[in-house]
Specification:
TIM Barrel; Jelly Rolls; 3 domains; eight-stranded parallel beta sheet; six-stranded antiparallel beta sheet; 12 helices; 29 strands; about 20% helix; binds 4-nitrophenyl 6-deoxy-alpha-L-galactopyranoside
Length: about 600
């Protein structure tokens, strides 16, 4: 047991991606979760009746979170409840949401059983501020949803706002930062409402697969105590040992590592592969609860690529719907969900049960790779977000030759024409993409494929973009500056002393290749040199001042100029691996900003 915990801790802290270990390190309880990959979040409650507007005024916060309207627009509770008059109870049917989730290819549903407003969507005996008290005939949305999930084979998760509760006299609400709230009184809320309500949810509704807490800061920064959180967690472990708990419970890993998955920030997608289960909660526009002022709908491709991007890093994607007060799911949401669902009906094999492969996350500029072990072999799924104009798909870094290559949508598995030399696999694509969003190619391997580490990939134009981000051996000492000045200044490496950059590429044919370098130099010295070495040859190139560029006309708004310079050509006499070495040694430590080396 202890060993498992140490492993888990290690996995949480380790930032590296060792995909073959991913499933082993995932705890047993979360196995279904990491297989499922895609779930539905539902934000629905009294606030849905306001639609993000109160007495003609929009929700008072930049983030559009319509479920916060009671707090933001300072609505007192009695008036808030009048929103229930807008609900069309005979049209509200949670089974419809579950059917949508099912058709969307989602494997689990997480609903706001109680959001920050403190209003329970079930017939709570512990607290009368609940849906049954305000409906006739009485409704229990959680019971209805649980039955529908069971009927359609989806797992059920419950969002429960444990920290914030605007209904209970002693619950937390941010204005209590002004008025104060004693620990004793907060514990009254905890023992009178949180614990009994959680007990109800965990005993009366069949298996609960996730409790989704929502305290995004550590308890030490607010009124909740560690003991209270441990009590709550203990209750879940006791009553439903199979239930997963997300990281927004509010305990730090140092205090307690026994959480089941990490929840990233709202709409925060993964940026690195992890071996510990994790998930991004996301919206289709901005708000979680229905907001009629929402307009910035993400496209189907954007959402699908977010899902695939997360899966390619061992992550899950929890996509939200905010049904209206009549139970309807906004068309802009259901349409996108069903489009993704149709795609998953054909391509689900590349998502469910899949995870990260060992290559770096941004290795290929045409898309993402998801991975699955199959018996003694393995499958790589190539998700082509950007269909190459020359119909050549380059996969850099895999040393094994695939046994079979075909489109996942092709039931006959017609082999695609394939060329494999050492570390480069090239697939000839048909002129028309078989899918408008993400055509998927399966590469089947008879054993776990060998990978060549530290290779820079051949990109979609057939060249190599060599940057501080794809060095052969990553270096922590480099001073990297992200893009700035509205992006006019690209990401670059600030070089003040002698610096050697090394990359490795695989040349799939011999030939002469031209080298360009992009840099900015704002000094005035004329003797600075770039030294480039590749394939036994050296090129010396003078660095000259690059001057400025105008960002906006007429505003005297200037930025350093980054320019591409042809520095020469080098013959690569044979097929094989080449090391490319670039040396910059600034005179008198005067800053030279290196952006990239391009060869083709
Ligand atoms: C919380 C809720 O307040 C919100 O209403 C919604 O339910 C969402 C899913 O979760 O909002 C958050 C949570 C975390 C952060 C920001 C807003 N965060 O980590 O920055």
């Amino acid at each position: 047991m202890k060993i498992i915990k140490i492993c888990l801790l290690w996995a949480i802290f380790s930032a590296t991606s060792v995909c073959s270990l991913a499933q082993e390190l995932t705890n047993e309880r979360a196995k279904w979760f990491t297989d499922a990959r895609y779930g539905m979040f539902i934000h629905w409650g009294v606030y849905s009746g306001a639609e993000g507007v109160w007495k003609g005024e929009r929700h008072r916060d930049g983030n559009n979170y319509a479920e916060w309207i009671q707090y933001r627009n300072r609505i007192d509770q009695k008036e808030y409840l009048t929103l229930l008059d807008r609900f069309e109870w005979d049209r509200i049917d949670p089974e419809k949401w579950v059917i949508l989730a099912k058709n969307a290819g989602m494997k689990y549903v997480v609903i706001t059983a109680k959001h920050h407003d403190g209003f329970a969507l079930w017939d709570s005996k512990a607290n009368s501020y609940n849906v049954a008290q305000f409906t006739n005939p009485q409704r229990d949305i959680i019971r209805e949803l649980a039955a529908a999930c069971k009927k359609h084979g989806l797992k059920l998760g419950l969002y429960y706002s444990h920290w914030i509760d605007w209904e209970h006299k002693y619950g937390w609400d941010h204005t209590k930062e002004i008025t104060g709230l004693s620990n004793e009184n907060y514990d009254r809320y905890w023992q009178e409402k949180v614990i009994p309500q959680m007990r109800e949810l965990l005993t009366g509704y069949g298996p609960i697969s996730i409790i989704w807490f929502d305290m995004w800061i550590n308890h030490s920064q607010t009124v909740v105590s560690k003991d209270q959180l441990m009590q709550l967690k203990g209750l879940i472990r006791e009553l439903q040992p199979g239930c997963l708990i997300n990281s927004r419970l509010g305990l730090s890993l140092q205090e307690d590592s026994d959480i089941d998955f990490e929840e990233l920030g709202d709409n925060q997608l993964g940026n690195m592969s992890r071996n510990f289960p994790w998930q991004s909660p996301a919206t289709v526009a901005d708000s979680w609860g229905f907001n009629r002022l929402d307009t910035e709908w993400k496209s189907t491709s954007t959402l699908l690529q977010s899902l695939i991007g997360n899966v390619s890093l061992n992550g899950n994607f929890l996509l939200n719907i905010g049904p209206r007060a009549n139970g309807e799911v906004p068309y802009e949401i259901s349409q996108r969900l069903l489009e993704i669902g149709d795609w998953l009906k054909v391509n689900g094999e590349s998502v469910y049960g899949c995870g990260a492969f060992t290559l770096p996350k941004d290795q290929h500029d045409w898309g993402k790779i998801t991975f699955k072990k199959t018996g003694s072999g393995a499958c790589l799924y190539l998700h082509i977000f950007n269909y190459p104009l020359d119909k050549q798909l380059n996969i850099t870094g895999i040393l094994s030759k695939p046994a079979k290559v075909y489109f996942l949508s092709d039931k006959n598995k017609t082999p695609l024409s394939l060329n494999h030399i050492t570390a480069l696999t090239t697939i000839k694509l048909p002129s028309n993409s078989p899918d408008p969003y993400d055509p998927v190619i399966v590469m089947e391997y008879s054993a776990f494929p060998d990978v060549s580490e530290g290779l820079a990939a051949k990109n979609i134009e057939g060249g190599f973009s060599l940057t501080p981000y794809n060095l052969n051996v990553p270096s922590e000492n480099l001073k990297i500056s992200e893009r700035n000045r509205l992006g006019t200044v690209p990401p670059h490496c600030i070089v003040k002393e002698k610096t050697i950059f090394k990359w490795k590429i695989f040349a799939d044919k011999p030939g002469i290749r031209a080298f360009d370098v992009s840099y900015s130099y704002q000094g005035a010295k004329l003797k600075n040199m770039i030294v480039l070495k590749a394939g036994q040859k050296t090129i010396n190139y003078s660095i000259l001042p690059t001057g400025k560029t105008v960002v906006e006309p007429g505003e005297n708004y200037l930025a350093d100029n980054y320019k591409s310079n042809r520095i020469g050509s080098i013959d690569f006499p044979g097929t094989g691996f080449y090391e490319i070495i670039l040396e910059i040694d600034p005179e008198e430590n005067e800053e030279i900003n290196f952006q990239w080396l391009w060869l083709k």
